[in-house]
Automatic annotation (TrEMBL):
Residues 196-249 form the HAMP domain. InterPro entries: HAMP_dom, HATPase_C_sf, HATPase_dom, His_kinase_dom, HisK_dim/P_dom, HisK_dim/P_sf, HssS/ArlS-like, Sig_transdc_His_kin-like_C. It catalyses: ATP + protein L-histidine = ADP + protein N-phospho-L-histidine. Its EC number is 2.7.13.3. The chain crosses the membrane at residues 20-42, 174-195. Pfam families: HAMP, HATPase_c, HisKA. One of its GO terms (molecular function) is ATP binding. Gene3D superfamilies: 1.10.287.130, 6.10.340.10, Histidine kinase-like ATPase, C-terminal domain. It comes from the Bacteria. Its main location: membrane. This is histidine kinase. It is found in: Cell membrane.
Length: 479
């Protein structure tokens, strides 16, 4: 049975829907306010005019006319003439609901609902809206009683047609609704454009991410033409892909380099092993030479493997430190002693300047690994007769080590990447390109900093800064 895959709506749809809903609700509220305003203006206004005139007419009639059941038939025509309102029909109604007289000259045959008559008060006329029984047109009527000694003799009833008002009201409401729909339409189009502007970089980012997941590290998206954070996101993504591309290149370079570095000592070990096995073991000169080469190549292999293991443990956060308190001058002397023969062979001098009573709390073996790597590089890139200076000073709560050589130095491009894992400025250089990267990580695990200053043909200065509290314990406690 085939599974039906439901198409999932995108963020552009939801952004547009959200904007349209918000704008529609705002327009509906606006239309409601307009409806209330127009209703008040047209209908309430008419009601107030009729009610006000009806009350004034009744009060004036009760003050100026002597009312009695006997003279009603004589004064009714006069009342019609005196108290009618232009644009309305005035009727005089009996308490039973019969229409006694009308300003139109015609006496309608229908009667007025007695309940409305009874509910009316002199100061509170009753308003009624409905259809005229004679013409079926929509009308508004106001009824107010005319009293004599608390006896209701007759009622004034004013009637006005609502047909014209209804037409104007509907026209105004139609115009208002048309404007509201136009606003929703324009807002929807603007929302679509706005949503497109937001979602376009996200769509490009999604496509580029899919390419990136397939190993296409050159996947880039446009930048510099999007809104605020979206342009920042595009820039960050491009920087990430560029970084991944660089790492991929370095990884490939590393694999190639490590393969070459491993092949060379293994070839030497294999070759000399075969030579010794098939050769004359009594030839001690050849045997010693072969064993010496095998030992050196094995050391090279061990160093490469250790670097790879250190790099792996640092990245997996399983790298541990075993700090102890040790004497700095003694430590530096032990490190330099390992390079004594090499320095004599190359004709290079190493000098050390440090306070005699400085001790620090650190992992001695790891710090030795750092200094050996840095000094070995200084010797490697120095010429015979040049000087390497090692200084250790205490400044502002920190102990500063400086290893300065007069060697060939580095270009700015190489200097920027020299502590990057697997980076080798020269592809012909032996090693894995992990030495300085591991040194930097070890120093930072000691809460310190490793900084390199170098100029081409003017030497290099490696500065190692560690926190120091001025006591024999030196460094603060490490985690």
């Amino acid at each position: 049975m085939e599974k039906m895959t439901k198409h999932k709506k995108g963020i552009r749809y939801y952004l547009m829907l959200q904007h349209v809903i918000v704008i529609s609700v705002a327009v509906l509220l606006f239309e409601f306010v307009v409806f209330i305003g127009l209703y008040q203006y047209y209908y309430r206004n008419t009601e107030e005019i009729l009610s006000s005139h009806a009350k004034n007419a009744v009060h004036f009639a009760m003050r100026s006319t002597e009312l009695s059941p006997f003279n009603l038939q004589y004064i009714i025509p006069e009342m019609i003439n005196d108290y009618q309102l232009k644009g309305t029909e005035m009727q005089i109604v009996s308490p039973s609901g019969n229409i006694l007289a009308s300003s139109s000259g015609f006496s309608p045959k229908y009667t007025v609902d007695r309940r409305l008559l009874q509910e009316s008060e002199v100061n509170q006329p009753v308003v009624w809206k409905g259809h005229n029984e004679g013409t079926e047109e929509r009308v508004m009527a106001v009824v107010v009683p005319l009293e004599n000694e608390e006896e209701r003799l007759i009622y004034f009833r004013y009637i006005t047609s609502l047909e014209r008002i209804d037409k104007v009201f509907k026209k105004q409401m139609s115009l208002s609704l048309g404007i509201g729909l136009a606003i929703i339409l324009v807002a929807s189009l603007l929302s679509l454009a706005f949503a497109k502007q937001i979602t376009t970089p996200l769509i490009q980012l999604t496509k580029a991410s899919k390419r990136l997941s397939k190993g296409e590290y050159d996947a880039m998206i446009s930048q510099g033409k999007y809104l605020g954070e979206l342009d920042t996101l595009a820039k960050s993504f491009n920087e990430m892909t560029h970084g991944l591309l660089q790492h991929e290149k370095m990884k490939n370079q590393f694999i190639s380099s490590v393969s070459h570095e491993l092949r060379t000592p293994l070839t030497s070990i294999k070759g000399w092993s075969d030579t010794l096995l098939t050769g004359d073991l009594k030839n001690w000169k050849e045997v010693r030479q072969g064993l010496h080469i095998i030992s050196e190549e094995a050391s090279r292999l061990t160093e490469m493997v250790e670097n790879l293991l250190d790099f792996s443990s640092i990245n997996n956060q399983s790298f541990t430190l075993n700090p102890t308190t040790f004497h700095v001058p003694t430590f530096l002397s032990d490190v330099i002693l390992q390079f004594e023969k090499l320095c004599k062979k190359k004709g290079i001098e190493i000098t050390v300047q440090t306070s005699p009573d400085v001790s620090i709390y650190a992992d001695r073996n790891r710090m030795k690994q750092v200094f050996i790597n840095v000094i070995d590089n200084a010797i490697k890139y120095s010429q015979p007769g040049e000087l390497i200076e090692i200084n250790a000073t205490v400044q502002c709560g920190r102990i500063i080590f400086s290893i300065k050589d007069e060697g060939q130095g580095m270009t700015e491009e190489v200097l920027e990447q020299v502590t990057t894992p697997f980076y080798k400025g020269n592809s012909n250089t032996s090693g894995t390109g992990l030495g300085l990267s591991i040194c930097k990580d070890i120093v930072e695990l000691h809460h310190g900093e490793l900084h390199i200053e170098s100029k081409l043909d003017k030497g290099t200065n490696v500065i190692i800064s560690l926190p120091y509290d001025g006591t024999q314990d030196g460094l603060q406690s490490l985690p």
